[in-house]
Amino acid sequence: MDAKKIIIIALIICMSISLGATYYFMEKTKQTELDSIKSYYDCEMGNLNSYVSYMENTTDELNAEIEEVNGLLSDVREELKLTNISLQENLSELEKLKSGNNYDLHDPTYNEIASFIAQDKTDEEEYIEDVFDCEQFSQQVNTNAENAGIRCAYVIIYFYDTDAGHGIIGFNTVDRGMVYVEPQSDEWVENLEAGNDFWTDCIVPNGNYYYEDAPNDTIKEIILFW
After folding, report:
1. Helix (H) or strand (E) holding 197
2. What are the beta bridge partners of residue 165?
3. Which residue in 125, 184, 200, 202 is a FRET match for 217, CA 20 to 30 A apart?
4. Rounded CA gap, 175 and 218, in Å?
């Protein structure tokens, strides 16, 4: 074999080795790049999964809050509905009051009350327990007073050691302050305060009745309704 052929063979071998090395290096570099890309991709996927999980939790929380708010809105709507109904009823009642004497009620003088009580005939009604008792006496005088343009309070008196109560009427006079009347007998009521015996300490007898002190007549509480 001559020298020329030997050189050609050597060059071919060198080129093959060089190409192999280049190919190996390129494959190695490509694999490194692929590993880097895969690592980045895995990292990003992990971040994305974490974000998705966070968003899912946030969505659940928002849905729960929305449900709670919707419940509150439903309650508010119901309260608003009831308020509107109450408002309409009050407006209707106001219109009724405006069309009658009740709208022009006034606080009377003491003499005006004395004259009204003397003329009122409610005390002549027959007392019938649980049918026409102190409650009905008081309500009727209250109605008669308001029909006459006089502001009148319905007064409930509660006693110690009993669930029973008693009803009378009251007026806020412009010259003597609050005065009270027993509507069943037209007797004035004075010293109306807790701790007093209603029939013996508060009633001012007009001579038609005799009252005895009783343990269940001690006043516990007094409530006025105008």
Report:
1. none
2. 158
3. 125
4. 29
Model-wide pTM > 0.90: no
Residue type, 50: S
**CB atoms closer than 10 angstroms to residue 25:** 10
40 and 130 share one domain: no
Of all helices (H) and strands (E), which one includes residue 31?
helix 3-98
Same domain, 180 and 68: no
Residue-wise pLDDT for 75-93, tens only, equals: 888 887 777 777 776 666 6
* 70 plus 141 within the same structural domain: no
Q: Which of 123, 178, 182, 171 is nearest to 146 (CA)?
A: 171
Continuous segment of H or E residues that includes residue 216: none
Environment class of residue 42 by beta-carbon count within 10 Å: exposed (0-12), middle (13-18) or buried (19+)?
exposed
Count how many domains the chain has: 2
Sequence-distant (6+) residues with CB within 8 A of 189 are: 168, 179, 180, 181, 182, 202, 203, 204
137 lies in the same domain as 194: yes
Please state, in angstroms and rounded to a whole number, the distance separating the CA atoms of residues 226 and 221.
17
* Pairwise CA distance, residues 86 & 26, whole Å: 87
